[in-house]
Write a structure and sequence with these properties.
The protein is an alpha+beta fold. Among the domains are: 106 residues, Immunoglobulin-like (Sandwich), CATH 2.60.40; 86 residues. Helix content is 58%, strand content 16%. Strands 5-2-1-8 form a 4-stranded antiparallel beta sheet, with no helix packed on it. It is rod-shaped and about 230 Å long.
Length: 342
Amino acid sequence: MADLRLEVDRFDWASEERLEVVGRWHGIRGRVFLRPTLDVRGDDGPRRLLAVLDHKPWIAQEGEEWIVAFPWSGPRELEHADLAVGSGTVVALPLPGTGGTARPPVAEVPTAAAEPAPEPEPEVEEPPEPVNPAELEQAHAERDTAIGARDAALEQWRRAQEELEQMRAEVAAAEERRRVADQARDEAVAEADQARSRLRTAESERDFAQQERDGAERRRQEALGSREEAARELHRASSSRAEVEARHNEIAAERDEATAARDEAQAALKAVTTERDTMREQRDAARAERDEITAAPSPGPVLPPAVVRSAAHAPHRGLRLVAAGALVVLAVVIAVLIAMSL
């Protein structure tokens, strides 16, 4: 069989009450691992420790990390430690905290046990008397029968060893199948958990979408109400616009009338201004004539000064009345224009 060894990565106390072995197995093909035991010898004598169940079933894979832990109490001074993981699978561990490679403390039992040495044929001493040939032939036959029985027993032992190895391989394969089945079960459980998580997420998203849809429906109803209100406002605005346009037309008509009145007032003002200028010219001429009359002596009767001033001022009074009327008309037109602009 392959050389059995355990590369010890760590053999030490993990806590006050726990002693752990961490390593990697080599040459374990065809071996069946059982619950490990640890035989230690220290100042308080030999002890056997049974592994805790934290790392059950303690299946080892070639070259992969393997862990086992044992309960501990008492002093830590150890002189020797043997780790057993199955029938005939025992390794001697290094001292705690030193590391190294653990190998079987004694030579393993080979696959085929050494055949027992053939029994030596008894030495035939010279009989004092002649040997009976029939008895000698019978002794030879018995010897041959014993040798045949021995060979048959050895063959049966070999077959039993082969069957044992085969059973160990089948047990190891069964353990591997169980490990694979456990892994598949764990993966299935994890997938089921993920599926449940996805289901919960989908339900949350569905509820959120429902809320969004309800909110959208409310907003749509509000938008419809707003649209109807806007339509009513538009209708009212259209009615107001028609009224505004009618009022605008009225104002435009009033403006046109005011403009016409303004034009008439301007024309009247212009006529008044023209008449004023004419009357001024007449006044100036009258003054000049008055001055000439005053300067030249007249044989006729002399008029009193009051009569002369009254005659001179008569044209001016008519001019003032016309100007005042024109100013009143102009003020009225300006007031109408200011009212329309407001």
